[in-house]
Amino acid sequence: MTRRDSIFALSSGAPPAGIGVIRVSGPQTRPALLALAGRVPPARQASLALLRDPQDAMPLDRALILWLPGPATVTGEDMVELHCHGGRAVIAAVEAALGAMPGLRRAEPGEFTRRAFDHGRMDLNAVEGLSDLLAAETQSQRRAALLMVEGHFSRRIDQWRRALLDLSAMAEAALDFSDEDDVPDAAIEARIGDGIAALAADVGALLDAPSAERLRDGVRVVLAGPPNAGKSTLLNALVGREAAIVSDIAGTTRDRIEVPAAIDGVAFLFTDTAGLREETGDAIEAIGIDRARAALDAADIILWLGEPDALPRADAILVAAQSDRVADDRPGLSLSARTGEGMAALVALLQQRARALLPGEGDYALHRRQRDLVGQLLDHLHAARAARDLLVTAEELRLGRSVVDSLTGQAGTEDMLDRLFSGFCIGK
Ligand SMILES: Nc1nc2c(ncn2[C@@H]2O[C@H](COP(=O)(O)OP(=O)(O)OP(=O)(O)O)[C@@H](O)[C@H]2O)c(=O)[nH]1
Ligand SMILES: [K+]
Ligand SMILES: [Mg+2]
Which family, according to UniProt (predicted)? Predict the structure, then answer.
């Protein structure tokens, strides 16, 4: 796919800044560079140039320019980078000069990336990874996103595609053969079966990959228990600010209070909830209790500040709170949010639990879209394996290949792509 129009945008942060990098991409890039700088420097070598307004030859800025002829560029098109002084008026003047040139216009959000995708420079997984990388706030988010951008997952999918093609070719050959004498070669069928099983094992292993949404939004830690157990006090201590109201009145917290917080490079989403009790005359509190139960259902980790025999889930962490004033023969992790006693142990335990849910060093995380498609691929492989008829096996393998195409975005629906790219900032 090629496009006629060329685009430009400020690709660095909002001015004023030390440097403002304006990128241009498309067939008009070279003429634009010539018009602004009066020359086209050697490819991929930084050089200084006085940029002039082509209309009146007045100086705009002295900038570092980088001429990047396509197709070996990030968009796959001719590109130039203008590293200008990052003042508002400088950027505005250079952008105005570019905008006045024929065939050049401002880029829409994500349009550079979209061109990279359209020209096969990035597949959909790398695009999603880039979106995550730009949004990354913690080091674990950054690491997992970078692996996606670098194409680790895409290369694995490519291996799947090749394995599927090989298996399909074997199945077709066996079918041709069986046409001739009605006796399919048992050895070939066994080889196909083994190949499918090996591929299914590799694909299935990815279904356990950590969730990119969880990595992005934070590990959901829900604090729950009876009224006045000290949930809100503990939440405030964990996030380091007075996010929730604390009082000695039972039933103080009614709504769910969600507070994101990064602890040692891991994103958590802490949720304080209304105290759970069976009977309340207060209609609002009753709604709060329903919401608390819903939060518990969605929790990755539960901190339970109640009775041990009322644990909402077997893996909930039992917390014996307010240890500074309650006699401590209680089971569970003893702590006082007031004095800080036991807090370090709780944080260490949260980190340990979170690590098990998040990608480790060198692991990638999968978005729901990716996980769903990996699941579909696995279903087709299982069906291909279980089929008694080689025709069915061949068809399931073909369906598997189309799932792989969806995974890389080769068979993506247009509105999904529009949504994804519009989430990018301008200049990316
Ligand atoms: N001494 C001491 N008091 C605490 C501690 N934690 C909470 N409290 C007190 O216990 C009372 C209840 O605390 P909250 O944090 O509001 O309890 P809660 O579980 O959120 O209560 P609800 O929102 O009403 O369900 C308040 O008066 C707190 O100051 C603690 O560790 N030590
Ligand atoms: K309270
Ligand atoms: Mg509370």
Answer: Belongs to the TRAFAC class TrmE-Era-EngA-EngB-Septin-like GTPase superfamily. TrmE GTPase family.
